[in-house]
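Input.
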Amino acid sequence: QLAESGGGVVQAGGSLKLSCVASKRPFGSVPLAWFRQAPGKEREFVAKIDWDGQRTWYADSVKERFIASRSYGASTMDLHMNNLKPEDTAVYYCNVDPPVTAYWGSGTQVTVSS
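Output.
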């Protein structure tokens, strides 16, 4: 019910913008979050944005490099990723927070080359 897009291959120091779009039901009144899963690792929290787009939370590893954005009450959100590092390589997912199993999409692959 949530679909991610915008991933790709980028060199270290580069930027990418990911997008998350909800379908089948509105998510405009709940916080939305980004998660990522690197090969051989568990899925981890990356960023979260409140329903009105005014408050955001970030994992320490991405603070000051990633920016989550969302229009007031929208069921879509973006993740602007700057100064990317090889350790940011992962499949990125969006979901509500705490995540709901049924809402996981297929994710979008981000690969950062050194």
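The chain has no helices and ten strands.
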